[in-house]
Amino acid sequence: MTRDKGPPLVARVSRLKMLGYLAIGAALTAGAVGMVRDGGIALLIGAPCAAICGGATLWVIRQMLRTGPVMEIGPEGILWRRWSDSAIPWSAFSRAWVTGHMVSLWLKDPDAYRSNGVLGRLSPLNKAGGYGDIILLAQGLDCSFDEMADAVYRHRPSLFRR
Fold first, then answer.
1. CB of 136 closer than 8 Å to CB of 115
2. Which of 14, 19, 74, 162 is most exposed, with the fewest beta carbons within 10 Å of its own?
3. Whole-number Cα distances in Å, 84 to 32, 79, 113, 127, 141
């Protein structure tokens, strides 16, 4: 029998927050495209910036079109749709760490829970930086970072012990 750890956290995309990211992305993309049009040395800087900012802006648009929950943290584990459409049980994690505005989670067997999302493709960079396999972020969601981190701690406090 498990004791009640409170309600699960169910977070969806906040279209209002994402509008802010969309405006920033569009402005940065437009500036980078302007650099490309200027040519010369600006082209060398502007082209990669236009590609990166344009890609990020398209990702924001895709997120704004998303329906349903993006993140669910409950007694059984975590469903983080920016990582995968499959839930990951708590037993799959070895530890957790809160830093900045993210919760970093290490998987016992990363190959067992492969990502099909953008965050999964960035996972090697996270690992190289000393972070876990999965990074939970509240950016663009209708929950706060504190609510998200509290939900992880509430449902699996043992992950935060070394």
1. no
2. 162
3. 31, 8, 8, 18, 16
